[in-house]
Design a protein that fits this description.
Radius of gyration: 18 Å
CATH architecture: Alpha-Beta Complex
Largest sheet: 6 strands, antiparallel
Distance between the termini: 23 Å
CATH superfamily: H-NOX domain
Number of helices: 10
Order of helices and strands: EEHEEEHHHEHHHHHEEEHEE
Helix content: 25-40%
Strand content: 15-25%
Shape: globular
CATH class: Alpha Beta
Number of domains: 1
CATH topology: H-NOX domain
Structural class: alpha+beta
Length: about 270
């Protein structure tokens, strides 16, 4: 196997993982207030928003640069980061509306609503799927979710709910075809950056095949990952996605790769 040079995002080492493994069985234009200089790849996506979104942009830009390169063999690289790899500046409202649906279904919405005291409350409650919102709106939503004090299992469960809705929205045809021909997760996982670009402006995914049925997923420069609720929800998102095409899926957060989840969150996923 050919050795590759790996982009190391965090040289410091911590404990092995955040917690126990989890096991379980259309684009629209951004509103003018969010648009910056248009990208030639997607003229409808914002890049340098002003106002509160600009604050989120500045917060993300303050994250340490991705510059240190060290030789390391992480298995077979099956998906690399997008280039350029930029910090997140906006979030798709579809994530928030799906999250609110899960809270209502679990009888948690009233508690959430009482905790949602930010200046973005009305924007959050009135948003509809398919819009781009400033990253700080997402931060206000997920901070209130985090304040619910749910268990890791509950947070992972909500992440799985959101994952299923998102996949039904964006990859329904692919998943239907894949199930019909016995496709493995190795055809779904490389679509990580396709999904990322539909849910966030900025950030990126890199995936390594580290075993026949094991993957390491690196999620870089998604600033909201500094919120524990978002991190455990992400475990649920990937668990549910792989469960579409495999059984006995286990996912966990590995902290040895980074001391700052807003810069880099790393998951190990295994399945049967």
């Amino acid at each position: 196997m050919q050795h590759r040079k790996r982009l190391s995002l965090a040289p410091s080492l911590e404990s092995r993982e955040d917690g126990p493994a989890s096991r379980g069985p259309a684009s629209s234009r951004a509103p003018a207030s969010l648009r910056g200089p248009a990208s030639p790849r997607d003229p409808g996506r914002p890049s340098h928003p002003g106002g509160e979104a600009g604050e989120a942009f500045a917060h993300a830009r303050n994250l340490a640069p991705l510059s240190q390169v060290v030789p390391r063999n992480d298995g077979e690289l099956i998906l690399d980061y997008p280039k350029p790899l930029e910090a997140t500046t906006a979030i798709r409202s579809t994530l928030i509306t799906s999250s609110l649906e899960s809270l209502r279904a679990r009888g948690l919405f009233e508690r959430y609503d009482a905790l949602q005291t930010s200046s973005h409350r009305q924007t959050i409650l009135a948003c509809v799927a398919g819009e781009w919102l400033p990253l700080e709106v997402g931060r206000a939503h997920y901070k209130a979710c985090d304040a619910l004090g749910l268990s890791q299992e509950q947070q992972i469960g909500i992440g799985k709910d959101v994952s299923r809705r998102i996949l039904d929205t964006f990859l329904a045809l692919f998943v239907k075809m894949a199930r019909g021909v016995g496709v493995t997760p190795w055809l779904l996982l490389p679509k990580g950056n396709v999904m990322q670009s539909r849910l966030y402006v900025g950030g990126g995914i890199r995936i390594w095949k580290i075993g026949p049925k094991a993957a390491k997923v690196e999620i870089a420069r998604v600033a909201l990952q500094d919120i524990p609720y978002v991190r455990w929800g992400t475990v649920g998102v990937y668990t549910a996605a792989v469960e579409l095409l495999a059984k006995n899926v286990a996912a966990r957060i590995i902290k040895t790769e980074s001391s700052d989840p807003a810069r880099l969150l790393v998951l190990r996923i295994e399945w049967d």
